[in-house]
Design goal:
- 35% of the residues lie in helices and 33% in strands.
- The protein is an alpha+beta fold.
- About 4% of the residues have low confidence.
- It folds into two domains: 166 residues; 86 residues, OB fold (Dihydrolipoamide Acetyltransferase, E2P) (Beta Barrel).
- Strand 4 and strand 5 form a beta hairpin.
- The longest helix has 23 residues.
- The strands form two sheets. The chain has a five-stranded antiparallel beta sheet. It has a five-stranded mixed barrel with strand order 6-7-8-10-9.
Length: 258
C-alpha cells in the first residue's frame, strides 16, 4: 500500500489567523469530497474525507490523507483520488489566475471554496502557498500561489459570483438539482412532466419544459430511470401572473442515482 498524502505548505511571514486557516481547510475538504463524488462509480466514495496526518514546525506544513472506508477499497486500489484531486486543483487555479486551459464548470459555492483556500496567503503579503502530493516520501508540487496570485484568484471568483447571482435574479438558476415528481413515457406529452428543485422551490412540483428535443429524449428515454435519478441542470423559471408555473431546462450537466 503506497503512502500518499496531500501536502499544504504555507510559507508565512506573519502569524496565520485561525479563522483564515480553518476556512481554507474546510473549503479544501469540501472540494475534495465534491471531486471524489464526481469521479467515482456508483458513489462508492460518498463518505470520503480528508484527515490531518501531520503538522510540522517552521513553515506551516499540513499533510492530509484519505482514510478509505471498506466500500472505497476497490476504487482506491485502482485510482488514487488524492493525486487526481491535486491535478484538478491545479487546473482550476491555473484558469482562475491566468486563464490557462478551459473554463471549469463551477457553482457559486465552488468559487467561494477556491477563494477561501487561499485566505491565509491573501492576509500576508509575503506568504506563499504550495499544494502538492507526497508519494512514498517524494514531494511533487502541483500549484504555487503568492499574495498577488491569490488576490487575482479571489477577484476573479468575486466577479463570477456576482455574474451568476445576476443571472439567477433574471430567472435563470445555474447548477441546481432536479428530481422528477412524475414523468410521461410519451416524448410529445409535456402535461404530465413535473419536477422538484428544492434549491428554488422546496416541495413544489412544477411542469418541466424543454427547448432542446435531444436533451428531452436523453433525460426521459436514457439509460437511467427518471424517477430515481437526480439531474444537475441549469433552468429558467417560467411564471404566469407573477407565480411560478414551470421550469424550462436549459442545460443538463450530469446525472446520478438518488
Amino acid at each position: 500500500m503506497q503512502d500518499i498524502r496531500l501536502q499544504i505548505c504555507i510559507e508565512n511571514t506573519e502569524p496565520i489567523e485561525l479563522l483564515d486557516l480553518t476556512s481554507s481547510l474546510i473549503s479544501l475538504n469540501n472540494q475534495y469530497v465534491s471531486y471524489v463524488k464526481k469521479n467515482t462509480v456508483d458513489n462508492v466514495s460518498s463518505n470520503a474525507k480528508l484527515y490531518i496526518k501531520e503538522i510540522r514546525n517552521g513553515s506551516t506544513i499540513l499533510e492530509l490523507v484519505e482514510l478509505a472506508v471498506i466500500t472505497m477499497i476497490p476504487y482506491a486500489e485502482n485510482v488514487n483520488t488524492i493525486v487526481g484531486f491535486a491535478r484538478y486543483c491545479k487546473m482550476v487555479f491555473d484558469y482562475l489566475i491566468g486563464g490557462v486551459g478551459s473554463k471549469p464548470e463551477l457553482s457559486i459555492s465552488d468559487y467561494r471554496d477556491f477563494s477561501n483556500i487561499v485566505n491565509p496567503v491573501v492576509a500576508d503579503r509575503g506568504a506563499i502557498m504550495n499544494i502538492g502530493t507526497v508519494v512514498n516520501g517524494d514531494l511533487s508540487v502541483s500549484f504555487m500561489a503568492d499574495n498577488i496570485k491569490s488576490n487575482a484568484l479571489q477577484n476573479y471568483a468575486k466577479r463570477e459570483i456576482e455574474t451568476m447571482r445576476a443571472t439567477e435574479l433574471a430567472g435563470v438558476h445555474l447548477d441546481v438539482l432536479m428530481t422528477w415528481d412524475q414523468a410521461s413515457g410519451n416524448i410529445k406529452n409535456n402535461t404530465k412532466n413535473k419536477g422538484v428543485i428544492d434549491g428554488i422551490y422546496p416541495d413544489l412540483a412544477l411542469k418541466i419544459l424543454f427547448d432542446d428535443e435531444r436533451m428531452k429524449k436523453k433525460i426521459l428515454h436514457g439509460d437511467e430511470n427518471p424517477l430515481i435519478t437526480v439531474y444537475r441542470v441549469d433552468v429558467k423559471v417560467e411564471t404566469s401572473q407573477g407565480k411560478p408555473v414551470a421550469y424550462r431546462v436549459i442545460k443538463l450537466h450530469e446525472t446520478f442515482e438518488a
